[in-house]
Design goal:
Strand 1 (46-49) and strand 2 form a beta hairpin. A five-stranded parallel β-sheet has the order 6-5-7-10-11, sandwiched between helices. It contains 16 helices and eleven strands. By secondary structure, it is an alpha/beta fold. The protein starts with a helix and ends with a helix. The protein is 47% helix and 13% strand. It has helices at residues 3-37, 101-104, 114-125, 144-153, 172-175, 178-181, 206-211, 214-225, 227-250, 265-268, 270-273, 281-303, 323-333, 340-351, 360-370, 388-404, and strands spanning 46-49, 53-56, 61-64, 70-73, 92-98, 131-136, 162-167, 188-192, 195-199, 307-312, 355-358. Helix 3 runs parallel beside helix 16. It has two domains: 1-38; 44-249 and 258-404, Rossmann fold.
């Protein structure tokens, strides 16, 4: 083949590639415009954090639609809340709420969150004769370890009178142990010689250093400003959820069990093992660390002249409005009581003189009486996080308990 023919072929291929690239670029521009006109927005609300592994991004805003639908605004201090002055007014009782995705509450509006409902009801009962100000420090996925660090690094700047720790029993205990949470990207506390010791080795991992790099920050900037990239990310996330659900449906239920054998942790799922009294060393360690963290938090809160109130929340199956469904679940898990983690934390609180509110039994009674779902949205009723009604019922119960006087 002559050089002229080769050059002509190369030019034709280059022209086709250029045309394809232009078509893709033009299609992306049209898609970007269409998504913006439609109001599509799936921003990334989190960023790396040197102390806690990750945290909410200050001043980030956009729609959240993975459950429910709410327009989210993160305030200038990285809280899913309104702006709050650091200095507390003398005529105000300030309550700092610490927790995970339940107080973060992305599926609902701020006005619908349990802590907003609680604040309104507390103002009505006027339990302390002062104004009530609630500040939300909840971040999705946090365990008690990250919540203790949040208390130390962020909460005390606001001088709260009450620190309210919202405990999600189905995963907070497992989140406190590396072997159960199965990630190296967050801090942990370990019980060494009877003393809690911080393990923040995540800070030197390759993954965390990459997330802190200039190139990664550029990627986050592009994702923030491109609805097309956001759509691709959400499509990938949705596919993984669908794939996991399909595998769960197709998996044989406890196929390796004998009649008298206990279901293995892998078969039950970590979130379900929490309803059973721990027997193996890993779960015993997880509970020990969790209980030590609660006592440590009590000590630090008291040292600041404030009061710690522990609130154990509800899980979907605990308050599912059909006793038969709950019985089937308990039989599969091999338990006679869905409130084991709630009772255990309550007993610790009484023993250690920590104020405690246990929500799940009362919320179960409400769900049964009214035949309503307190967890889940749309086609996923009964699962996932609290819906608007769940938040309202929880907020009302907490406020009523606080208004009634001393807890325990």
């Amino acid at each position: 083949m002559s050089n002229d023919l080769k050059q002509g072929r190369v030019r034709r291929i280059a022209a086709k590639l250029l045309l394809i690239a232009f078509g893709l670029l033009f299609g992306c521009v049209l898609a970007e415009i269409a998504l913006r006109v439609a109001g599509y927005s799936y921003p990334e609300f989190y960023q790396p954090d040197e102390m806690r592994g990750y945290a909410l991004r200050p001043n980030m805003e956009g729609w959240y639609r993975k459950e429910g639908a709410a327009y989210i605004h993160i305030n200038s201090d990285g809280l899913r809340d309104r702006e709050h002055a650091k200095t507390k007014s003398p005529d105000t009782i300030r309550i700092a709420v610490i927790g995970d995705s339940y107080p973060e509450a992305l599926p609902v509006s701020i006005e619908e969150t349990f802590w907003s409902v609680m604040a309104g009801n507390l103002a009505t009962c006027n339990a302390w004769g002062k104004k009530i100000e609630v500040i939300n420090f909840g971040v999705s996925g946090y365990g008690t370890a990250q919540e203790l660090i949040t208390l130390r690094e962020h909460v005390w700047q606001y001088s709260p009178d009450i620190v309210m720790l919202a405990v999600t029993t189905n995963n907070d205990v497992s989140d406190n142990l590396r072997e159960l949470k199965k990630t190296d990207q967050v801090p942990y506390f370990a019980d060494r010689d009877g003393k809690l010791t911080l393990d923040d080795s995540f800070r030197v991992t390759r993954n965390f250093r990459w997330r802190q790099s200039a190139l990664s920050r550029m990627g986050r900037w592009i994702r923030d400003h491109s609805r097309v990239i956001q759509a691709i990310n959400e499509g990938h996330h949705g596919f993984k959820i669908w794939l996991a659900a399909r595998r769960a449906r197709n998996a044989p239920a406890n196929s390796t069990q004998t009649k008298n054998a206990e279901p293995a942790t892998e078969e039950l799922g970590i979130d379900n093992v929490i309803y059973r009294e721990p027997a193996d060393p890993t779960w015993l360690d997880a509970w020990r660390v969790t209980e030590d963290l609660l006592v440590q938090m009590r000590d630090e809160v008291r040292s600041k002249g404030a009061e710690l109130v522990v609130v154990t929340l509800s899980n979907g199956v605990q308050v599912y409005p059909d006793p038969n469904v709950r019985q089937i679940f308990m039989k599969r898990v091999g338990v006679s009581d869905l409130f084991y983690p709630d009772h255990r934390i309550h007993q610790l609180a009484v023993r250690e003189h920590i104020s405690v509110i246990t929500l799940a039994p009362e919320m179960q009674a409400y769900a049964d009486q009214n035949k309503v779902f307190l967890h889940g949205f749309r086609n996923n009723q009964g699962n996932g996080h609290w819906n608007q009604l769940g938040h309202r019922v929880a907020g009302e119960i907490i406020a009523r308990r606080l208004c009634e006087g001393p807890l325990n």
